[in-house]
User: Fold this.
Amino acid sequence: MDESIHNLLKGAKWEELIPKLTAYAVYLCTIPPYSLPGGKQYEDIVMDAIEKVFKGERQWDPLKNLDLSCYLKSVIKSLLSNEKRSKAAAIMKMIPEDLQVQHDDNTIEELYCREVDKYIISCLEGDAALLLVYKAIKDGQSPKQISEEYGLDIRNVRNIQKRLSRKLPEVLSQLQNVKNHD
Amino acid sequence: MINNKTYKDKLAALLESFSELTDQDLDAAKEVIFATGKDPDAIVRKGLNRLEQIKKMYFALKTDIAFLVKNAETKTISLSYDAAIGDIMDIDEVYEAESGNYKWETGDLKIRELPVDLMYKIMMAANHALPEPGIRQRNKIVPVDISHMDYLIHAGYFIHENLLHPLSEDSVAFAVQLKSNLTKENTLPLKRALDYFVTRGANNLLTFEPEALSISQITESGLYTEESTLFKRKLYPYQKEGLQWLQYCCINRIGGILGDDMGLGKTAQTIALIAWLIEKDILENVLIILPSTLMENWKREFAFFTPSIKPYVHHGSQRTGSKFTLAKEKVVITSYSILMNDRYLFAQQTWGLLLMDEASLVKNPDAERRKALTEIPAHVRIAMSGTPVENSLMDLWSLADLVNPGYLDTRQNFAKKYISKDLTATLNNTGISELRDTVSRIMLRRKKEEVLDSLPERIDIHQVLELNPAETNLYEGQRIQVLSQLKGMTETMMSINVLKQIQLMRQYTTHPFMKEPEKLATASFGALRDSSVKFSRMAQLLDEIKERNEKVLIFTEYLHMIDALKRTLSFHYNCKVYTIDGRVAIAQRQENIDLFSAQDGFSIMVLNPRSGGMGLNITAASHVIHYTRQWNPALEEQASARAYRNGQTKAVNIYYLYYADTIEEVIDNRLRDKKQLSGEVISNTDTRQNMAFYLDALEKSPL
Assistant:
């Protein structure tokens, strides 16, 4: 590994990056196909990702992806999804071939996500601004785009976004309960 | 299209958006974590800890791989890889000595092709590797005792400015770091071991060239001024310098030759060294090998200089056969002949310091005792000899090779380079000055005239000897006989008889053949030497005096012995031996002295102290040997004054040879006591003898 990359890695603000990335892992694990592997915690996944970058198993190229945080998120995402796939594959292997039912994983996930969406909307009902911004963000719009499209002050959009994010952990934990219950 | 996104994508986008928020706001991120029931600060602490481990492990791995791959361009790291077991069996650098280049070994894995999983195995192997720091000397790498590395570093060796060139600052740092990283078991943690593994080549170990420093640089550096508190006597300035040089040799694992002239105190210097080694816990133990004639002398010297150090004497039929007994001792003394018998016992442990007194006895490289010596493993070898070069330059090679194997090249190459059939050609060899310079780095040789400033003009050397078993039996038989005869005698009768009997005992301490005059009259030099420890020691002294081309007076009062000495010494040393005793006419005596003085170089004169001990001026001699001790110390002083008197320009060595636990020891003690009292030589009028001394002398038993 190039010496300069070593220095960049060593110089990163890990005491801030670790909680932020852990929060990201928390978010990610609430929706399929992402899930925590057995016996691991959110922070373990974060550190696994960091380790892979240090080891060079995941090669970070600052010229292509300047933001280390973004790069690490992609690694975390990949780790969480890989885990799911490998777990599924392991389960599938245990089932005799003639008994295996071909099905579309995406359909199931999609159905689940629709349920999640419905659930979030139901939680946000009664707060129009929240609902509006939620839907816009869900469609991939950035705060700036939302501001322009709906004629809202950008600062207002961001505030709503923050309110939404503060609300979300509550929603997510309820959702987690529902998921576990299922 | 955004609207065509699946619910999954939509939720993902939502979460991405939120994570952007938490990216900007640390508190927000912590809130998310907190909502999952965890403590964000604990997570940060846990994460940072793991990060430290990751950094340690994988930075090292990456650096090391890079290092190894880089180095693979110039040198090979050979891996013995067992495909069946799938494990690294051995890791080593391969160096092709002939061409001086590193090369790929056939069948070895090339390091640049080394897969990562094998790299892990290297790390595991390195984890179990014990570091073996060493000092790279001329022809070999001498391992450094880790437990003493602190001292090595602090003692100044590593930081001496003259060594900084061959020994880089990096190496010093490396040595310090290595020491600090070692566990109690002298192992290294995984990461450190790998660090060591990859950097050892770069540091070239701790390189060292024995010739880097000269004696003056060592003494002027002031690094070795420390003396041991165990050493209770004062050293002369030149002896202090010698001690510093010896300390330097021991610290830096250089074999050395202490070649000071006889009488300059080689024994004192080496005992001071031993005291220092023991006090500072440098070099674990010391093995001293010497001629059996000097065994008793060394014991006494230890008692005199360092009363708290009691050497273990490995001698006689009751000696141990256990290596464990020897291993427990700090200082072991043995003789060359015992070494021959017990060579396997001594070879079973590595000695810290191997000290060889009178090393000229092991100069013959083909001799069995010399071979036995080289078999004994030792960190440092010091040879002591007043005559390092006796007959030819090969003597020098032999001694140098004994203490520093390979230092002067092989025997054949050395002979080819320096030795010519013609002595003049050898002396004119232009390489001789270069050789002198090379040798001076491992040999400290001071001549008397060089250290005259700090040397007393007269050097009294009391040399205690031990009777051999045959001599002991003779002496002891006579002693018991005397004591039994004296029983029941009146004092007057006793005084008449005891003198006569003691006279007989003194004959035995002169030579056992004195009892059989015919045998004494015909015995060869070898026979006389082999049957008497004192004669043997005298011969060693004469060898050294001859090598120095100086003259010697030998005092003995027995005519038979004077004749035997004249006959055997003139033949053995191929020189005329002059005598002065009652049989030589007074006019002839001065003529003998003149002839003796006029003779070039080495010359011997044997005198009766009563005939030749007074009035004569023999300042040509600079050595006096009191072979038969005089009951009257004043007589001995008179005899010594033949050489040590006005007009003498050299320092005079006066040897008092005496046997331990015999009447000679009583005589010797008496002489020393008198000297201490008066502070100078004993008065000529002091001839008082009393019965108490006689009886005291008779109490002494060599058994």
Observations:
- The first strand of chain B starts at residue 76 and ends at 82.
- Residues 35 and 596 of chain B are 113 Å apart (CA to CA).
- Chain B has five domains: 2-38, 66-128, 134-207, 210-455, 459-699.
- The longest helix of chain B spans residues 40-72.
